[in-house]
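TASK: fixed-backbone design
INPUT:
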């Protein structure tokens, strides 16, 4: 049974070493997040920000420490179920040979959602992120990096995850589009109680977006 006020995500003394066990990539990371929280992660290049997101999405397991999601240890949650609820939007998204429309609907087809709901969600998120009609048939080579970031964000949002992990989602966007996106994410987290962790180098974006900022240096939380 879940204890009362169980956080959505809890990391307890999470550490990670490289495969030879010689280099420490993350050291004793502990924090927790509740439903609807927005956390910003900052830190210099190589500080461990992407690595931390990969642990939360279980693309890698920690060398020590525990990660709990929604009251369960991450290692006990089947990967398919976990990746429907914890979605990582990578820094340099790929469309893996699919068109934009296929990229957006593929995760919903995997979930075996009815066609009408798939179409409804496609329209909903396309409109929220201002994705024009003429992008739908395009493939990766026919999109700029910024356009791919928007598509990748829509792909994450269309899954309506409990926890969205965003790795530098606005790095290739012009500032108008970046602000528009951040505002959309804030209203989403408020209305749907989606919890969001966003890695971003731009302090101004992080300040606007988050309730809380965690700064990493050489794999450690410094504040
Ligand atoms: N599996 C791994 N084995 C060895 N070293 C790794 C592994 N994964 C990441 N690293 C190293 O860990 C450090 C942190 O990398 P990470 O990509 O998490 O940094 P970051 O803070 O996201 O950087 P950036 O802002 O440049 O994206 C880097 O020095 C990287 O080379």
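OUTPUT:
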């Amino acid at each position: 049974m879940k204890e009362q006020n169980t956080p959505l995500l809890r990391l307890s003394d999470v550490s990670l070493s490289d495969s030879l066990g010689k280099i420490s990539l993350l050291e004793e990371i502990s924090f927790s997040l509740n439903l609807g929280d927005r956390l910003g992660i900052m830190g210099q290049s190589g500080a461990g920000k992407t690595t931390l997101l990969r642990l939360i999405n279980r693309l890698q397991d920690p060398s020590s420490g525990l990660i709990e999601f929604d009251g369960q240890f991450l290692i006990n949650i089947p990967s398919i179920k976990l990746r429907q609820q914890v979605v990582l939007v990578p820094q340099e998204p790929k469309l893996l040979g699919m068109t934009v429309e296929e990229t957006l609907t593929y995760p919903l087809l995997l979930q075996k959602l009815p066609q009408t709901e798939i179409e409804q969600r496609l329209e909903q998120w396309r409109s929220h992120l201002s994705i024009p009609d003429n992008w739908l048939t395009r493939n990766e080579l026919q999109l700029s990096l910024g356009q791919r970031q928007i598509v990748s964000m829509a792909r994450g949002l269309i899954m309506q995850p409990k926890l969205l992990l965003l790795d530098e989602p606005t790095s290739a966007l012009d500032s108008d589009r970046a602000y528009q996106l951040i505002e959309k994410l804030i209203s989403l987290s408020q209305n749907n109680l989606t919890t969001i962790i966003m890695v971003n180098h731009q302090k101004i974006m992080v300040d606007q977006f988050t309730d809380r900022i965690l700064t990493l240096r050489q794999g450690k939380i410094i504040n």
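COMMENT: The pocket of adenosine-5'-triphosphate is lined by residues 18-19, 25, 43, 45-51 (CB under 6 Å).
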